[in-house]
Amino acid sequence: MKRDPLNIKQTGNEFPLILGRDVSGVIMECGLDVKYFRERDEVWAAIPPWKQGSLAEFVVLSANEVSHKPKSLSHTEAAAIPYVATTAWSALVNTGGLSKDNCAKKRILILGGSGGVGTFAIQMLKAWGAHVTVTCSQNAERFVRDLGVDHVVDYTAGPVEEPLSALEKFDLILDNVGGDTERWALNLLKPWSGAKYVTLVTPFLQNTDRLGIADGMLQTAATVASKALKHLVKGVHYRWGFFAPSGPALDEIREMVDAGQIRAVVEETFSFSQVPQAFDKVEKGHARGKTVVQISKGGDDL
């Protein structure tokens, strides 16, 4: 995805493109108008897609995208959280309407629960008192149960819609899988009760790559509007969720981490020289948490 899709800058500066969205490290310098941070503060952030990424020694961010790092985590652990946390927060809180005040006893289904977003969402929802069901492979069942999951459906044992249909209906579904899940998943929601299906697998980038930014956005808007209307008449809400960087959201997440309600799930750590191997691993899928790249060991900075 281009950082400047409308070519406003016209400077030909798309490359080199620095990848990576999570960052945890130490502030080296602050702008004159920055009031809540100072040099040497330990911070974490999720970097917006239109900015250069985190696989670098230095990162430039706006103050509203940054938050103080949890004191209970190392930088390696902290770097595993911001992107998946702000993605889950955007989908569940901003789009799904959930909060710590209204989540108790709600029935939530997470399709694809053992990856980065899923493992964070499980912990946040359980901390807020929800009943959480997830789909994952059999060899990930113990892993997600250790995070607090109430019920697990093994997708390797056959079509998951059958065992899920036998359960009590859900108040919200978070879809990390996509594919044909839309065909049957919305039938698992409680009708006419404000129940929502939120998918993180959308055709937005495919549309903009194929049709250009303007036509792609028009096609995307038409698609989501037609699907939302189609399911609204059945008494359920269809929504798309997106990654949305937010320092204030990370402030709240930091409090949950330091209270012991959420822990970092790091599957594997690579050095900066091993970045190609790290991407090979991520591309294979079947994640059990996050893959972290350690940029510098000096001062434990990432």
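Second entry:
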Amino acid sequence: MGDLESDFNLKVVLVSFKQCLNEKEEVLLDHYLAGWRGLVRFLNSLGAIFSFISKDLVTKVRILECLRSSPQREHYLSLQSMVAYEVGHQLVDLQRRSRHPDSGCRTVLRLHRALRWLQLFLEGLRTSPEDASTAALCTDSYNASLAAYHPWVIRRAVSMAFCTLPTRKAFLEAMNVGSPEQAVEMLGEALPFIEHVYSISQKLYAEHALLDLP
């Protein structure tokens, strides 16, 4: 799946999420996964702090890549076609994990939840003052998104890890698009696309009662 250890560049993520939607506003999985590869590189560039999250994200991306290269790959061109195929053929565990623990619907849902956290965190970085606490920004974003799906032990460990985050300036420099000011400008361009993809995915999953898959 490409080199997830290579340098992160925010522009690559921007391009991927810009290309994520077709004229019917269907979420194209190849571009969605390309965007996630970039976001994983971003997390990896920050060191071991986010390894507990990035490792899980890599696993999820690889599951979807396997589906995209499987004999059923035509059903996994878009998020919409995937949901229609898996729901229509009862390939999703709706009540408890059993026969289909790695269904595309369940796998994307985990990425979808993480995307919300990253979207909120990056928006916080974009709009916050220079001396803002990244620990507070990340904690607030986590509490508003992923925390609801994690047990207390993980939430506690995550909160402690966030206390060691680098400064806002270091985060912005890690985006590799120039100065912190240039990174803020590109975040302003990228985040609306990420948010739009998230909103369309959220609506699709809500319509099919898939937001609480086990």
